[in-house]
Structures are given as structure tokens and as C-alpha cells.
Amino acid sequence: MARMSAEERRESVIRAATAEFARGGYHGTSTEAIAKRVGVSQPYLFRLFPGKKAIFLAAAERCVEDTIRTFGEASKGLEGEEALHAMADAYTRVIAEQPEWLMMQMQMYVAVGAAEQDGDTEFGEAVRAGWMRLWDTVHLPLGADVNETTTFLAYGMLVNCLTAMGFPPGHRVWEGMYPSARIKGRLEH
In the chain, which residues have pLDDT < 50? Predict the structure, then answer.
């Protein structure tokens, strides 16, 4: 079997870090757990990334970029309500199929709040920059309407919270959602 390049190993660290941070959060996840999941030593991990914060931020960046790509691909060639429903459907499908993606997002917001309480703005700056790219990605297909963009993203955050809390499809809390924003099928935990 061929050896992985440093870039391939870096990608495997980001995937492993996403899974570990999604479960344990920034403070509850050790670099040892990430290294073990990847099958490398901690010293090797730190040759790829300067520290735990860099690993977390790389995982957070990947999570945001994957969400941006999901919205961009779903809305390609669409506008207005068609784009809205295509993006909502694509997103709810992804978070139902890949719960670590949703949980990583939730952990990103917690990490920002905790870090800023400690005077560390680096988490917040990185996550807010990603959020603005996300905003821009949905803003144009929704007709560059600030209210539509805000409403879409607000529904998305509600979907995140309801899904993270484990409300099953068909529960009454989903009734006010437009159908494309409702979680389909059975949620796996």
C-alpha cells in the first residue's frame, strides 16, 4: 500500500477531528483522540498542524465550506423560491445522513462563545468569516433580499437546534417549517 502524502494525511486529520470535535467539543476533545483515530502519533499531528486550535479551525472551515458547497450545488441555476427549497432540502438531507456535520456546526458556535469569554477572538473571527461566505452563497439565489436570506438562515438554525435535540420527523415542532426544511426519515443517533 502506498504511503499517504502529507496533504492526504492532513485531510484524514480534518475528517477525524470533525468526528471527534463534533462529539466532544473543543475543550472535551484531546489531540490524542484525534491522532489515535487517524493512526498517527501526536508529534506527527503537530507537524501537520501547529496545535489543537489550528486543527479545530481547519475542521470548522471544512464544515462551513461543505455547507457552502451544498447550498451552491443545490441552487445552481435556480432563483427565489426554487433555490430556497432546493437548498433547504439538500441541507436537511445532509445533516440527517451525516449527523457529525450538524454537531460540528453546533460545537463551532459554542467554541466561539467560550473563547470570546476568555478574550480569544480568533475562533470568532474565523467562524464569522465563514458565516459571511455562507450568507453570500444563499443571498444571491434568494434574490439578494436581506429578509429572505435572514429568514432562510434563521430556519436553518432552528432546523439545527431541533435536529440536535432529537425531535423526530413528524413531531409537531416541525409543522411550521416549509416542507423542504423538514427532516425526512428517521434520525440516527
Answer: 186-189
Question: CA-CA distance, 60 to 10, in Å (whole number)?
Answer: 14
Q: How far is CA 89 from CA 71, 85, 124, 151, 156, in A?
A: 10, 6, 28, 15, 11
CA distance between the termini of the chain: 34
Length of the chain: 189
Residue with cell string 503537530: 46
Q: What are phi and psi of 25, to 5 degrees?
A: 75, 175
94-114 pLDDT, tens digit per residue, is: 998 899 999 999 999 999 999
Please tell me whether residue 43 adopts helix, strand or coil conformation. helix
Task: Determine the Cα angle at 122 with ends 116 and 127, to 5°.
Answer: 90
The span from the CA of 56 to the CA of 139, in Å, is 27
pLDDT, tens only, 76-85: 999 999 999 9
CB atoms within 10 A of CB 99: 17
Tell me the one-letter amino acid at 78: L
Contact predicate 60/72, CB 8 Å: no
The amino acid occupying position 152 is F
Could you write out the three-class secondary structure of 46-83?
HHHCCCHHHHHHHHHHHHHHHHHHHHHHHHCCCCHHHH
Do 101 and 23 form a contact (C-beta atoms < 8 A)?
no
